Amino acid sequence: MEKLYTAVVTAKGGRDGHIKSEDGIIDMELKAPAALGGEDGYANPELLFAGAWGACYLGALGSVGKRDNVDVTQATVDVHISFNKESEAAYCLSAELHVHIPGVDWDIAQKMAEAAHRACPYSKATRNNIAVKVLAD
């Protein structure tokens, strides 16, 4: 494995804390969402994870589109990250990736969506760790 890039972000204070990247591009306050006893209007770990996964996933879908000679430049993915309670002291994440590829039949879009999920580094990182559904719209 050849390391190509390393992002460094320092987190303080947990869900009601602050994150700052080494390069200063990210410098933001975090709050738990209102549904978890916090307050709306702030970023939270699930939002950040969903955004990062979605961006990475579309990169993988771009590679699949290039391989299959299908234009995916207008494709979108809605990433749903859920924070779930397993027991009184245990929590876990689950995810749904809703993929939309304009002008592509559903069965082809679903196959492409699944291929991108197999290739995406974020999808690989979560494989067999959290429940994930990949659905072409």
UniProtKB/TrEMBL annotation:
Database matches in Pfam families = OsmC
Upper lineage is:
Bacteria, Pseudomonadati, Bacteroidota, Sphingobacteriia, Sphingobacteriales
Q: What is this protein called?
A: Ohr family peroxiredoxin
- Similarity section: Belongs to the OsmC/Ohr family.
Query: Species name for this entry?
Result: Mucilaginibacter celer
The record's Gene Ontology biological-process terms are: response to oxidative stress
